[in-house]
């Protein structure tokens, strides 16, 4: 077998296995890729429907790696407590709960019971990591799901701020995100 054929073998194997390729993670000043995911109750929610209303804080949680992540739950509760402050700034908060389980909707409902969220806080599920992979944030290690990440997206769809966590608990607080919005200065933190 020629060296050229040998080197192309991994690409062929990946193509035949149907594994999704990871996209590049969008950064500050990039346009946020649009997507539509469903709430745990089954209602479709396009990102563009939220950005049409104003600024959006997009938070990618760890989802369900076999248990409810305490860091994700802490972040989710923190943002819910600050919901009125986000609303006063015309900001929607969209949490993405990724996973592979056929019970992902019920796991997300256990994470955030229906009717328990303020009007400007939303939770959608990401079955099989479709959006997680679209954003290049799939954490492909045993027992892992996604890199915890937070984006501030302007009404235009442009990313104003991006933070990609390097560990389970590496995510901004609601106060950090509110400060970034109020500072009106784009900022980024990359791995």
The CATH homologous superfamily is called Glutaredoxin
Task: Identify the overall geometry.
Answer: globular
Mean pLDDT: 85
Q: Element order, helices and strands?
A: HEEHEHHEHEHEEHE
Largest sheet: 6 strands, mixed
CATH architecture: 3-Layer(aba) Sandwich
Total strand count, please? 8
Regarding CATH, which class? Alpha Beta
Number of helices: 7
Q: Could you give the distance between the termini?
A: 39 Å
* Alpha carbon gyration radius: 17 Å
Number of domains: 1
How big a fraction of the residues is strand?
15-25%
CATH fold-level assignment = Glutaredoxin
Across the major sheet, the strand order is: 5-4-3-6-7-8
What share of the residues lie within helices? 25-40%
| Overall SS class | alpha/beta
What ranges have pLDDT less than 50 throughout 5 or more consecutive residues? 1-21
Short description:
By secondary structure, the protein is α/β, with parallel strands linked by helices.
Question: Can you characterise this structure?
Answer:
- The chain is of the alpha/beta class and 191 residues long.
- The chain has a single domain, classed as Glutaredoxin.
- Helices cover 32% and strands 22% of the residues.
- It has seven helices and eight strands.
- The strands form two sheets. The chain has a six-stranded mixed β-sheet with strand order 5-4-3-6-7-8. Strands 1-2 form a two-stranded antiparallel sheet.
- The protein is globular.
- The N terminus is likely disordered.
């Amino acid at each position: 077998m020629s060296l050229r054929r040998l080197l192309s073998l991994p690409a062929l194997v990946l193509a035949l296995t149907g594994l999704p390729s990871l996209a590049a993670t969008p950064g500050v000043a990039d346009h946020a890729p649009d997507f539509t995911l469903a709430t745990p109750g089954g209602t479709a929610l396009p990102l563009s429907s939220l950005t049409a209303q104003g600024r959006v804080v997009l938070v990618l949680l760890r989802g369900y790696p076999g248990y409810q992540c305490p860091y994700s739950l802490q972040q989710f509760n923190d943002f819910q407590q600050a919901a009125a402050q986000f609303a006063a700034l015309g900001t929607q908060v969209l949490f993405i709960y990724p996973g592979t389980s056929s019970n992902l909707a019920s796991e997300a409902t256990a994470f955030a019971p229906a009717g328990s969220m303020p009007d400007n806080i939303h939770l959608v599920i990401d079955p099989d990591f479709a959006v997680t992979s679209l954003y290049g944030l799939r954490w492909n290690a045993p027992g892992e799901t996604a890199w915890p990440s937070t984006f501030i997206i302007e009404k235009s769809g442009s990313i104003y701020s991006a933070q990609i966590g390097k560990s389970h608990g590496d995510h901004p607080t609601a106060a950090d995100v509110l400060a970034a919005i109020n500072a009106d200065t784009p900022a980024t933190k990359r791995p």
